[in-house]
Amino acid sequence: MEKMGNKWEKAEKLSEEKFKRLIGVKKKTYAEMVSILRTAYAEKHKRGGRNPKLSIEEMLLLALEYWQQYVTFAELGFSYDVSKSTVHDITVWVEDVLIKSGKFALSGKKALLEDEDIEIVLVDCDGETDRTP
Question: Which of 43, 66, 91, 111 is 20 to 30 A from 125, comparing alpha carbons?
Fold first, then answer.
């Protein structure tokens, strides 16, 4: 399994075009997002706490990967060496902080329903639900 640090280090070295294509945002936008998340994280943890397993850059990379590629929390947890509940917590936190900043917005369900180019909407399920009676 590839260590996460290597993944972020590789992403950092990408050209602007490849970074945008693979990560989903421009490097400048990514840096702005990291700055906002870093400030929010410092505020949230100003009284201390445990050091996070992932850096702010890795947390944002994880969230963008989830939004862009629709991989499951379990897959991302495996890839980033954290639990799927940690992946969930990170994606929710990143989304909330970025939306509350007022600088970023994510399309909602209404935008998806109004988009005439979308013919199919898939629902992701991790397959762990036990349906035996």
Answer: 111
